[in-house]
Design goal:
Blueprint: E1 9-13, E2 20-25, E3 30-34, H1 35-40, H2 45-48, E4 64-70, E5 74-79, E6 87-89, H3 90-95
Antiparallel strand pairs: 1-2, 2-3, 4-5, 5-6
């Protein structure tokens, strides 16, 4: 792991049929990530291109079908339309948090 408790998940919960995923972090923070945010900020090149700037891209099937861990640093999701090319680092997932404490500094790709 990274050694930074802000980006070390201790629990990931995404119940079948739900429209949010919850991540509890080693620093005690809990992120509730709506599927719309996860899918809209998919970091893959198909969704974001190669420009480096992350943009919200609406659309796509928001049913989360599968979650796979990628090494010790990321998660990969398979959506209902079989889109599965985004690899979401734990740092990136933390940056997508929409809670009241995080939202004022919301900036995909950065950790406060």
């Amino acid at each position: 792991m990274s050694g930074d408790p802000r980006i070390e998940p201790t629990m990931v919960k995404a119940p079948h049929g739900a429209r949010t995923m919850e991540i509890e972090w080693a620093d005690g923070h809990k992120s509730v990530l709506p599927h719309e945010i996860l899918r809209g900020y998919c970091p893959c090149a198909v969704c974001q291109g190669h420009g480096g700037t992350i943009h919200f891209v609406p659309g796509g099937d928001l049913s989360l079908r599968d979650i796979q861990q990628v090494g010790n640093y990321a998660l990969q999701f398979t959506w209902g339309d079989q889109h599965d090319t985004g690899i979401y680092s734990f740092r990136y997932l933390r940056s997508l948090c929409q809670c009241d404490a995080c939202k004022p500094t919301f900036s995909p790709g950065s950790v406060p």
